[in-house]
Write a structure and sequence with these properties.
The protein is an alpha/beta fold. The chain contains 14 helices and twelve strands. The strands form three sheets. A seven-stranded mixed sheet has the order 1-2-9-6-5-3-4, sandwiched between helices. It is globular. The N and C termini lie far apart (43 Å).
Length: 359
């Protein structure tokens, strides 16, 4: 199966290609979109062990001049302080604005490398090769690139679309189980916000092994939903906010624990549960939605409960959220599974007494 989607954004349009085994002959796909000779690759230590040499050697054999920067794995790498190291390495490689950068990794590498591409020499072309489930279904698509500040996630960034997104589902076979579980939070999110049938399909799989037998269809469905939303709202002024279901609270949790306790997917799972508990109690969300959501998250090994000792820090972080516009916080809620809305409220929506009643 070789699936292809086109993200239609006028002059910024690009293809998402989903093909098993593509990583082993990645030069074939690169040559179809790039005619230059130099390629700079950014990856992390974990991905490099499995795929760094494969990609590097395949591109070398195809006649490309390659330099590869291997960074530490983890959210700490997605830092503003890492950028000078990337820029300096690209300058030493004498990479010019007509040449190409490849991000080979998960969400951290994709966001970091994409932001570096958007700012180096005022912008160079880049290609996303996502290697985690989370990146394949979500973060590699849509052109949101960013780095973190001490205040929180993604506070410095831009909208900068790639030349292509190349997805090889076979890469997931070497993904640690915890990373696969992490990505399932974003997969489930798509069913929640827009596709009840997809939610039911995920519910029907009896195991991770059975899901993996249908992984291309799963990835295609998620990418298709995201690309259609991005096409209608590239700059995140309206409908695209729905893709952040659970994320407002999730980013606050990640920051609260200094990105060392809960992974992004785990935090998103807790965030989706938290807002749904509150909204169902308020009568906004159809009764029984929370129960079904909780069951599916637990089916795929995701947490649905958290105990916080200092909710004031959480609220302070939420107050700085990028969806807090003109003193109004935009939170994504479900009317029911498969249908979401953008709800205008205040950070106090997540006040400790409100949360404690529903945890």
């Amino acid at each position: 199966m070789n699936s292809q989607l086109t993200v239609n954004l006028d002059k910024n349009s690009y293809d998402i290609i989903i093909k098993k085994g593509m990583i082993n002959d990645i030069s074939e796909s690169i040559k179809s979109i790039y005619t230059g000779k130099k390629i700079f690759i950014i990856t992390d230590e974990n991905v490099f062990i499995h795929y760094g040499k494969t990609v590097e050697e395949n591109l070398h054999k195809a006649g490309f001049n390659i330099d590869i920067l291997v960074l530490p794995a983890g959210e700490e790498t997605k830092s503003f302080d890492i950028l000078p190291k990337i820029y300096e390495r690209m300058l030493k490689f004498r990479l010019n604005r007509k040449e190409l950068l490849i991000t080979l990794g998960g969400g951290v590498i994709g966001d970091l490398g994409g932001f570096a591409a958007s700012t180096y020499l005022r912008g160079i072309a880049y290609v996303q090769i996502p290697t985690s489930l989370l990146a394949q279904v979500d973060s590699s698509i849509g052109g949101k690139v960013a780095v973190n500040l001490s205040f929180g996630k993604n506070f410095v960034g831009s909208f900068y679309q790639p030349e292509a997104v190349l997805i090889d589902p076979n890469i997931l076979n070497t993904l640690p189980e915890s990373y696969f579980i992490d990505g399932m939070a974003e997969v489930i999110k798509y069913g929640c916000i827009q596709d009840m049938e997809f939610f039911n399909t995920l519910e029907a799989y009896k195991s991770q092994k059975e899901l993996m037998q249908h992984i291309e269809e799963v990835i295609y469905t998620c990418c298709s939903i995201k690309k259609s939303v991005v096409e209608r709202d590239e700059r995140d002024h309206g409908e695209r906010m729905k893709l952040n279901f659970g994320h407002t609270y999730a980013h606050a949790i990640e920051k609260y624990y200094d990105y060392k306790v809960y992974s992004h997917g785990q935090a998103v799972a807790i965030g989706m549960i938290t807002v749904t508990k509150i909204s169902e109690n308020m009568g906004i969300t159809k009764k029984g939605t929370l129960k079904k959501l909780k069951k599916l998250l637990q089916q795929y090994g995701l947490p649905t409960h958290i105990k916080l000792n200092d909710t004031k820090k959480i609220l302070a972080s939420i107050a700085l959220d990028k969806k807090n516009l003109d003193e109004v916080l935009y939170v994504v809620l479900l009317k029911e599974l498969g249908e979401s809305i953008i709800y205008k409220t205040l950070p106090s929506f997540f006040a400790s007494e409100q949360i404690e009643r529903h945890m």
